[in-house]
């Protein structure tokens, strides 16, 4: 078995993958996803947690129904996989087996954060540190299948793309919930952002040590505009909670300097930054979205307040709604985010370049 996989591996690593040759051609051998509920596709399904989405009406527009994706259809990770030419979506760590992991693994977990404690009031979740440990387990399995050849394994991983999207829950399910977490009492917003980014950079360096060489880091965007925060804090003239967006902007503003530092100090690697705020700015009606405020699904009133009610109803005009539940976008904005991360519409969408260019390296 191992020798057969090594032959397959060598074919993949010597193949010149050019996305311009054939439409839909797979541009990289594998895709790994590290993140939160924006990217989760089933890792929380069997955890003891309120942060789950493996029940209706989640997945109402997804071919396989409710799979654990926190939206009505495809999430950002799904669309990026499509854009990179994968013929199947990347499997969650919870269920991936054998040679399938050579296509990549999705480690993302709803309620997970950069900080281990973020989201703990909801129950179990797979923090960024735990996701990194899970990736180490994957690498060990891959190495075994490659005849315990660590050099081949690292060479293979160096050709993969890594999507990393973390930080939302360090605000939504930590800093912005003073009844559960002390962080907002201990730190001013800018200091808290500094602490987060310092920890984030250490974790991304760990990912590099594990073999990652092509990494796209997604920013957070307008957390102060999501329905769950509007319900808690009300709105100002902007239609959003400006103080929250300002706090989150401190975090996002520190990501490009972090990216520059990583690229300067880690040889033979390229980190890029995807500017979710830039992508989120524009005329929503141009993509058919006319409702920016109301969640599409019926809301839960349990501890998972802001998520869809189990078996609850959903609006019929889902393509015109920005938000699916109190926290997460519908499939339409997910597609826009992934598309502009892959191929920028504006120069501010990604830095120093987009995912399509990252794939060519």
Short description:
The chain is built from 13 helices and 5 strands. The protein is of the alpha/beta class.
Q: Can you tag this structure with a few keywords?
A:
361 residues; alpha/beta; Rossmann fold; 5-stranded mixed beta sheet; 13 helices; 5 strands; globular; lipid degradation
Task: Describe the protein in words.
- It comes from Nicotiana tabacum.
- Belongs to the 'GDSL' lipolytic enzyme family.
- This is GDSL esterase/lipase At1g29670.
- Keywords: Hydrolase, Lipid degradation, Lipid metabolism, Secreted, Signal.
- This protein has one domain (2-13, 24-360): SGNH hydrolase (Rossmann fold, 3-Layer(aba) Sandwich).
- 37% of the residues lie in helices and 6% in strands.
- It is built from 13 helices and five strands.
- The chain has a five-stranded mixed beta sheet.
- Helix 2 crosses helix 12 (331-342) and helix 7 (189-209) packs across helix 9.
- The radius of gyration is 20 Å and the shape is globular.
- 48% of the residues are buried.
């Amino acid at each position: 078995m191992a020798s057969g996989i090594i032959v397959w591996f060598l074919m993949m690593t010597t193949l010149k993958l050019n996305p311009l040759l054939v439409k839909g051609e797979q541009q990289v051998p594998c895709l790994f996803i590290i993140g939160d509920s924006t990217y989760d596709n089933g890792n929380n399904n069997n955890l003891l947690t309120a942060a789950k989405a493996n029940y209706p009406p989640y997945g109402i527009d997804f071919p396989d129904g409710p799979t654990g994706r926190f939206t009505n259809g495809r999430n950002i990770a799904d669309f990026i996989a499509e854009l990179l030419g994968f013929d199947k979506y990347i499997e969650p760590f919870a269920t991936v087996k054998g040679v399938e992991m050579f296509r990549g693994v999705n480690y993302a977990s709803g309620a997970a954060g950069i900080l281990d404690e973020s989201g703990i009031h909801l129950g179990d979740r797979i923090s960024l540190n735990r996701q990194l440990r899970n990736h180490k387990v994957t690498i060990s399995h891959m190495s075994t299948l490659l005849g315990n050849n660590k050099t081949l394994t690292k060479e293979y991983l160096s050709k993969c793309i890594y999507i990393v999207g973390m930080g939302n829950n360090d605000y939504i399910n930590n800093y912005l919930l003073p009844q559960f977490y002390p962080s907002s009492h201990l730190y001013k917003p800018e200091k808290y952002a500094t602490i987060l980014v310092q920890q984030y950079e250490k974790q991304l360096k760990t990912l590099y040590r594990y073999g990652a060489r092509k990494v796209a880091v997604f920013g957070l965007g307008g957390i102060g505009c999501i329905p769950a925060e509007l319900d808690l804090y009300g709105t100002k003239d902007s239609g959003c909670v400006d103080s929250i967006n300002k706090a989150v902007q401190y975090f996002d503003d520190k990501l490009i300097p972090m990216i520059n530092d990583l690229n300067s100090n880690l040889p033979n690697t390229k980190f890029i930054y995807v500017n979710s705020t830039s992508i989120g700015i524009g005329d929503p009606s141009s993509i058919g979205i006319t409702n920016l405020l109301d969640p599409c699904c019926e809301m839960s009133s349990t501890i998972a307040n802001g998520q869809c009610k189990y078996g609850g109803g959903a609006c019929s005009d889902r393509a015109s709604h920005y938000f699916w539940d109190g926290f997460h976008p519908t499939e339409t904005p997910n597609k826009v985010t992934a598309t502009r991360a892959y191929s920028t519409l504006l120069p501010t969408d990604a830095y120093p370049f987009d995912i399509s260019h990252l794939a060519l390296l």
